[in-house]
Structure formats: structure tokens, C-alpha cells
Amino acid sequence: MTMVFGITDPRTKQALGEWAEIAPDLGLDPSQFRAKLIWQKDEPTRNHIVIRLRGPRVLILKRAFLRPPGDDPTQTIIALKNAFARLKPYPAAHAPEVLFASGAGDLVIMAEASGKTLDDHLRGGRAHAPLLKRTGTWLAAFHASSETEERTYQPRFMVGHCERMADEVEAGKTSVADPERFITCCRMVREKAKSASDRKTISATKHGDFNLRNIILGPDGETGIDFKPLSNAPVGFDIARILMDYAELLQPPDGLEPGCVLTAATIDAFFGGYDLVTRDDPAVGFLPFTQLLNDWRSIPVEAHQRSWRQAARYKTIVALARNGFGVT
């Protein structure tokens, strides 16, 4: 019987029962593993748990019990397997190996990546620049391992997205914190896009949710996790996602120039490792502004409904919006 530490959740009993049935087919003895619940979510549209299984090797078990409508977990598993296969030739850039996935994708068992998330490292007091460089190095390997294509960047799609967000807030269809300032910033995106239009960029397979918690830095290199379904996009989408997550939560404000949301130190550190495009790439220059607005929209309207992380993020979002868009 698998030993369980700190687990009283009935969902865990079901997941470990399923693990006990699967393990022999993987050539593993479930009685040799200790289990620890390391993450859980129980929301109206999301219900899942994550368990670490420590034994002859260390594994991660993810079991979903409820997913949002339209969410297809099999596509994320395909993306993970694709990333693992593509990155195998790279000695220090990794994706977790999937050992088992149920037909519906609700149960996945994979090898655990060694190390800590970028978020954990940064909050633990490690120097930021070397970590951002390592993160950029992994993302460059991930993008380069796919089929890349030179494209003429067209920001009109994201301009339209931001203007639709403003329209919905004005019409009362969507609620956001500080709606007047939010609408003003959304309307300014068209002007921001002018300097990015009709310039060359690179498109590649994207991670889709490349944030501070989805990159693990360890002694044997860097590992990306929690990929979204396979799709291609300008590489600036992944770059903007990780850099704005960093900027909104942990970027030191010193050296932030007017009209910017990222400091020169942040950009220098990341592009010390990322080499598929330069910091002058049009999508890299433009998309941080649209990412800021997307992140703003995700913050609960009422302050008392925000987690400590959301509260900290929103405070910085307001400051970055003032600096980047020049709004008061």
C-alpha cells in the first residue's frame, strides 16, 4: 500500500487507487512509493489534485475531476509529449516525460522535474538576472526545436482584442477594477501598435502559458511544464507572458523609463539567454502592453475577493499602466 503523508482529501484516495492499478503496467511497485499532496484546486469549474510519488524514482500524478467547458486535456498531453520529444537533443532544456495518460486525459503520471520553479527561486532571494537568463535560454531552445517561420508582424488582431475588451466594459458586459482607466489604456493600444506593424518577426510553436510557475530551474538544466495545446504564434507571445508575470510580481521598479513596462535590466537579463529574436523584435516591444491589460482583466473587481498574489499583482499593474500608457 502506498504510504500517504498529509493527505485527508477523498479525491486522493481515488487517485492513489488508480495509481495502484496502473503502476505494475509501468514496471513499478506502488508499495515502494510515498505519496504527498502538493497542490489542489476546488472551484466551480476546476477541480484537480497533484500528488508527488517518491520511490525508486520521483513521479508526479495529476488527477482532474472537473474541467471548464471546452477544455480538452488530451490536447495538452499531446503538447507535452511533443515538447519532450523535441527537446531530447538538448542537454539542458527539458520537458517532463509522460509515463501514462488516461484516454480522457484526466489522469496523467509523469517524471518529476528536478529543481524549483522560477517563482520559488526569485522569492527565495536568488539574484534575478542569472535566473532570467536561464529562463530565456530554455525558451529559445523550445522555440528553436519547432518549425520556425519568418513572418511580417500584424498587431491588428491584438488591437482589436483590446478594443473589444474596452467595448464590453463600457457596455456593462464585463466588470474590471478601475474601469475608466482600463478603458483608456485599451483605447491607447492602437497607437502603441504603430511602431510594431509590418516588421519581421519569428513564429514558432508556443508554450501558451509561460509564467513564473511553469519553468523549473534545477541542477541538470531547465524544464518547462504545463503546456497549452499545440499552436503557432510569434515568439513574442511567450516572451511577453513570462516577462510581464515577472514585472507584475517581482520586477524592481528602479530604472523603469517613461512609456515602458519592462526595465532595461529585465530585458538585458532575459535576452542574455534568448537568441532566436532580439529585444528589438516588434512583437516583443508591443505585446507586453496587451499582456498587462489581459492580466488586469483577470483581477477580481472587489479587493476582498483577491488573493494576496492578485492584490500584489494589481497594485503593480496600476503603477505599470500609469508609466507605460501615461495615464494618471
Quick summary of this structure?
By secondary structure, this protein is α+β, with helices and mostly antiparallel strands.
- Quote the CATH topology of the largest domain: Aminoglycoside 3'-phosphotransferase, Chain: A, domain 2
Helix content: 40-55%
Order of strands across the main sheet = 1-2-3-4-7-6
The first-level CATH class name of the largest domain:
Alpha Beta
Given helix and strand content, the structural type is: alpha+beta
CATH architecture of the largest domain: Alpha-Beta Complex
| Overall number of strands | 13
Structure, described:
With 328 residues, the protein is an alpha+beta fold. It has two domains: 3-113, Phosphorylase Kinase, domain 1 (2-Layer Sandwich); 117-325, Aminoglycoside phosphotransferase (APH), C-terminal lobe (Aminoglycoside 3'-phosphotransferase, Chain: A, domain 2), CATH 3.90.1200.10. The chain has ten helices and 13 strands. The protein has helices at 10-22, 73-87, 118-123, 128-144, 156-170, 179-193, 236-249, 264-270, 282-297, 308-325, and strands at residues 3-5, 34-42, 47-54, 58-66, 93-94, 98-101, 107-111, 116-117, 149-153, 199-205, 215-218, 221-224, 232-234. The protein has a six-stranded mixed β-sheet with strand order 1-2-3-4-7-6, sandwiched between helices. It has a four-stranded mixed β-sheet with strand order 5-12-11-8. A three-stranded antiparallel β-sheet has the order 9-10-13. It is globular and about 60 Å long. 38% of the residues are buried.
